[in-house]
# Entry
Amino acid sequence: MIKGAVKNYISICLLMVSLSVLGQSVKHPRIYTNNESKDAFLKTLEEVSWKKDLVEKKKKNLEKYLEYVEKDPSWLVSRLQMNWKTKHDKVYLNAGDFSHSEGSAPVATVRYSGTRDWATDYNRPKLEDVIPYLDDPKGLYLENKKTKKMEWIHPSKAGFAIEKVNEQIMALAEDAAFLYWLTNDKKYADFAAPVFLTYMDGMFYRDAPIDLKKTIQQKISGLATFEVIHEGIVVSLVTVYDFMYNYFEANETNLDHSVAVFQKWGDQIIKNGIPDNNWNLFQARFLTYIGLVLESDSTYKNGKGREYYLDHTFETSTDRQLAIKESLLVYDHKNGIWPESPSYSVHVITTLLRIFTLLDNSTNKDEFLNYPIVEKAALASFQYLFPNGYTIGFGDANHKILPPENFELLISNYQKYDKTEKEVLISGILSKMISDDLYTRKASDFFQLFFYADELKLNKNEVSPSIKNLTSPTFYASNVSMFNQRMGDKDNAVMVSTVGSYGNHAHANGISMELFANNYALGPDMGKGPSYWHPTHREFNSRFPAHNTVIVDGKSDYSAMRSFNPYQLENSYPKTGETPSFDKITFSKVAFLEPATVSDQQRFTAIIKSNTAKNYIIDVFRSKKQEAGPQKHEYIYHNLGQSLEITDSKNTVLKLDKTSDLSSKKGDLKGYNYFTDKFKAQTSGAVQAVFTLKTENNPDNLMKLWVKGSESQTIYKVNSPASNAISKGTAPLEILKKPTPTLILKRNAAAWQNPFAVVFNPYFEGGENPITNVSYKSFEKYPSTQVIDVLLSDKITSDHIVVNASDVDIAKNENFYQKGLLSIKRQALENETLDFLFLSGMYKYENDGWDIVSSGNPFTFSIEKIKEGFTFETDEAITINMPFIKGDKPAELRLYESGKLVASRKGTTNRNNDAQLVFKIEKGYDKAEIILNGK
# Structure
């Protein structure tokens, strides 16, 4: 405790020293660079092609606009979205939509954005097509996306058109300001200055918006946009001010209005926002820019300068804007995960790295040291990745690569402060992304231009790290209710991501699953809709029907976005972050209470390596209402492909009839209405469902589902909307934006004692298929036990899998006893030779002469045949009773710790059964051997 307090105190002192340094007078420019570094930067442009390319691109892009302005000095300024005629100084909102403006100012004022919802039926015009000085009571004149006709519309129908036009214009001014600093060519300054000053004067005279409905909107609005986190134009404005400061001084330009606008913007960001999610950090980035560009507090009468805004960025929290110091407490400091869906989580990391890079550029105090969680989070983000390097897609996320900028900025810091070992490590990671064609080094903005390292420092003697080196077989993040399992590599790589709903940007999905196999996210999530306010998102994408889950009574639901409906992880193997020597299985068992129907749900999901390099997946989903009476449970699975064929156990195609089921007209959720091409059949028998994904010049990519039969089970074949989660990295181009084939299994009874059970069997047409057959059984007196027998491709090896609902449940017949969750036995059918036995959540297991008993706690145990006998590992104290032939020499037990032999002893004959040897294992061991000595 004392050490931690001292460490925190030192960190705070370091930061206060940094802020004190920033209070000193510093010349402009200073955000990205300074005049003292100009010569070195010019030399960099000669030597680093990708940096030179950006500068040349910006020069070339500005050429036509410079010509327009040379012919007509008002060409660019007139296209700013302003209240040119009315000069309104007051803005009124109707909750998330623009209502109207009124009042009067001495100059044209900046127009407010049209709506919080970016989804729109209208195209934003090219800059050349923007009507100059437009300020018409009829609204905006835009092209309808569908009809291609021009229409007068109210600004609230235009999405982000107003703010984006202004951002586009200010980005041109930003480029020109930089080129003025770089070249000293006055034409660039003359181009940028009128745009900047017109906008800043217009914002000086315009008030912050007022929400007529007095909703939450009043507390989240920015000066230009509906959300303080979307005030991106601030970065361009600060950059223009910084690079053009000497020009303005030389021309005796009064910058009081500009300073006042920066202060007003900073105050609006401090006052508004959402204080318990990512908003704090996105707002903090804008505050950092504002703070760094302003002078010391003492310069201004109101005392609001550099120290004031940076203090509110890093140290001082307000009701709706928490400082970074407090915001970072939201991280899980053990696993490094931010409590939001992956796309937002990795964006938070980028934002933090940008903030600390900007600060460090001004202080040169290695600001990253104050918050080590940022570096940890950047590395933990690899746990989000599918085997091909793209992120999983739960919640409002999609499949994309990790932001390379995260690693570029770490490298930049390591290089600046001579952290060579770390620099080489992260450079290796980035280099691997480049070699995998996931990333090409380039700069797309000034931040990257000035802060990316010129070259990557690599250790040529070491192999570049792969995703497999940076992830673990399993990874659990309770703060987002996510459990990931991985096995295999290349074409044989399989991953299952099981998620609940916890944290921000979550969906209502119960216990959902994404499945990766055959190089693609074959079982994807549907991702988010056109916008968070769009009916498609609210009714389908964010609700149960869009996910691989089980729905009860067609009504399972709860609040999405900010959700507190996690599952409970009850058992798993291996433990998160560990890589045990027994690597033929991973699994998780999670439990969930579905709130809308008050139903208990449980999902057991395992990846099992076959006796080849191929893997298969087992899914056992239990679901039951707590209330007695009629009930319905539907298992939904979406898979990439162009077709879905369903056959019976004799491989005869199942006859399906067109149906109007699965509809809100039948009492189901509105999300069911998005299913199309609906067909069904009713059968009690097991079926096989094969999804086929065809791509040009490649063998068919097949996902075969071995589905357990059940009395009066209804099988549905439908199409779901296209997945918005998939990308060219996780799905072939042929099916992007195409409907998603979907299998639905319906039971008009509880699915607990008789759970849904499916074996997922991915393979390529003409390639190795690891499974010959799957059969499902149960024990007559223990009906809740699920027994699955998988006959492998050699037709002589079988996996016998027994799954109970809990670790205290019993499964028993005359030759078998299990008190515990899971057993998997692989053996040859002819001679019953044991290949391996895996037990987890187990108290006692008896079969084929083996009797393994807990010493008190449920245990996880694996034993595998080797040439000399068996190798095993256990996480608890147990007693092993193993088969023994009378007259043989007793086997020898060898125990290892940290790879070294620490003890050995002979087995003793079981006093109650002389056909068994007994070994007492007093604690957990990650390696032990039983050496058979024969006669």
The longest helix spans residues 49-71.
